[in-house]
Amino acid sequence: MNETKKMRIFSLGIQHVLAMYAGAILVPLLVGRALNLTAEQLAYLVSIDLLTCGVATWLQARKGKYLGIGLPAVLGSSFVAVTPMIAIGSQYGIPAIYGSIIAAGLFIVICAVFFSKIVKLFPPVVIGTVVTIIGLALIPTGIKNMAGGANSENFGSLDNLALSFGVLLFILILNRYARGFVKSLAVLIGIIAGTLIAALMGKVNFSPVQEASWFHLPQPFYFGMPTFELGPIITMIIVGTVVIIESTGVFMALSKICDQPINEKDLARGYRAEGLAFVLGGIFNAFPYNTFAQNVGLVQLSKVKTTNVVVAAGGILVFLGLIPKVAAFATIIPSAVLGGATVVLFGMVVSSGIKMLQTVDFGKQSNLLIVACSVSLGLGVTAVPDLFAQLPQSIRIIVSDGIITGSLSAILLNIFFNLGFKKESLPVPPVAGTQEAHT
């Protein structure tokens, strides 16, 4: 491979990293701040997340006998896991989070063949409903951050509102007037610009960056040895199932873009790679991982369909994950700035779900009922988390999360109404524009 080709692959790899970077760092920031981690712990969480994103991408990019789908897919931390991880950490402690992630990862690896055979039970009405619920359930978190973050002393202050709405407006302006790759980076550019403005306002503390080291090695079980609790494990297995459903749609989209047909065996290899990524996330105290849809948009935009590019992106992510100072920069982003960006991202998740639902035949009353009941329960539990407060804790942890409740409802109602009938074809999720759903 000549030097020019190497540089082109490297530059395209950087583009993939930039396209997913905002989404990748948001999950550790949201979870870490909700669990009141120290600045040092938060920097570790961001850095290990970047590193594990890179390793997970490598696992998926290469098609082996048992592992990897062999498509140009980039993996990142899943938004689906945000509220379940916070709930598990608050009730059972951080070690229980990682015990549940490891258990869910092993479950996915073992059941990958089974998932590949029942994938037709997840038609567009299920996937579109699940994606919509994910976005709706996450929006309150973004709104709280716009005001300065939950329990903030200056919650809703004019400074916070000015910052958050300023970031939101700047992202919208970029989407309106920018073109090509710059447009696809609107959220990341908005976060950087908002943080710079916040620094001029004296609202950024740079000490975490100054104190962070230049290099570190991954440390297994950084937050202690994992504990295995039944409720959290079942919750995370459901999270893993939702991740599999989402990733299936992304695999189908990549297959179409790359003119590379995939079958049940390919899907099983892809699911095993994601399951192993879960296990690595649990061991190194990172996150559950899934395929990022916004990088599918970049494949379509660049017309470069080789896996060499995402392998390069994985290498860049691993390199960044070894440098705590890079991660520390992410930790200084004010909550109000994050809020302005996450409202856009979570709103785009909702939009992507609605777009998937456009392919559904709503002339069938059963499809209307699946969407109606699932969205109502998912949003209802998000708005009224005490609905199941009287249930035993092991059951409450499963049903008290709106994403889990809504997703289970969609899956079970689809089986109830449509089992034994002709299933709808698998969906191809919207990929035009790289800010679409990436949970």
TrEMBL record:
Its main location: membrane. It holds the Pfam family Xan_ur_permease. It is found in: Cell membrane. Keywords: Cell membrane, Membrane, Transmembrane, Transmembrane helix, Transport. PROSITE patterns: XANTH_URACIL_PERMASE. The chain crosses the membrane at residues 12-35, 41-59, 66-88, 94-115, 122-143, 155-174, 181-201, 221-245, 309-330, 336-354, 366-385, 397-417. It comes from the Bacteria. It is a multi-pass membrane protein. Belongs to the nucleobase:cation symporter-2 (NCS2) (TC 2.A.40) family. This is Nucleobase:cation symporter-2 family protein. It comes from Paenibacillus illinoisensis.
